[in-house]
Amino acid sequence: MAPALRRDVRLTAMPGKRVQFDEETWNALALLARDSMKTFQELADEAFSDLLKKHGRPTSLKDALRRSARLAPANDRGRPNRRR
User: Fold this and answer.
1) How far apart are CA 70 and CA 75, in angstroms?
2) Dist CA 24 CA 21 (whole Å)
3) Is residue 56 a contact partner of residue 71, using CB atoms and an 8 Å limit?
4) Does pTM surpass 0.70?
5) HSE of 81 in the Cβ direction (CA atoms, 13 Å)?
6) What secondary structure letter does DSSP report for 13?
7) Rounded to whole angstroms, what are the CA distances from 38 to 1, 21, 23, 42, 43?
8) 67 Cβ contact partners less than 8 Å away, ≥ 6 residues apart
9) Cα–Cα dist 19/3, whole Å
10) So what's the pLDDT on residue 54?
11) 32 pLDDT exceeds 80?
12) Is 60 helix (H, G, I), strand (E, B) or coil?
């Protein structure tokens, strides 16, 4: 690969992190991946998305913007005025 192309790939690549699993957990994850016909990355994406939702964190920019708009007092809907 040409040096210019390598530089472009590095700029657009997602950051990677390394995690360690015990052998039993790794084997269970590998089996789950095969059974569900998903890659390990797809399993990890699903797991981290579920973890963020569990803790009330937005998982996308759209979700974050939606949540921040709800926090603004101007967006609160008060009681509807009822005339008797």
Assistant:
1) 6
2) 8
3) no
4) no
5) 1
6) S
7) 29, 18, 19, 6, 7
8) 58
9) 30
10) 93
11) yes
12) coil
- Which of the 8 DSSP states describes residue 55? T
- Tens-place pLDDT, residues 37-82: 999 999 999 999 999 999 988 888 888 888 887 766 665 666 666 6
Q: What is the pLDDT of residue 29?
A: 95
- Encoded tokens for 52: 């963020």
Q: DSSP letter string over 70-82?
A: HHSGGG---PPP-
Helix (H, G, I), strand (E, B) or coil at 19: coil
Alpha carbon of residue 36 to chain centroid: 19
Q: How far is CA 11 from CA 8, 14, 33, 82, in A?
A: 5, 8, 29, 58
Return the structure tokens found at 38: 């998903």
How far apart are alpha carbons 56 and 8 in whole angstroms? Answer: 35
User: Which residue matches tokens 């995690």?
Assistant: 19
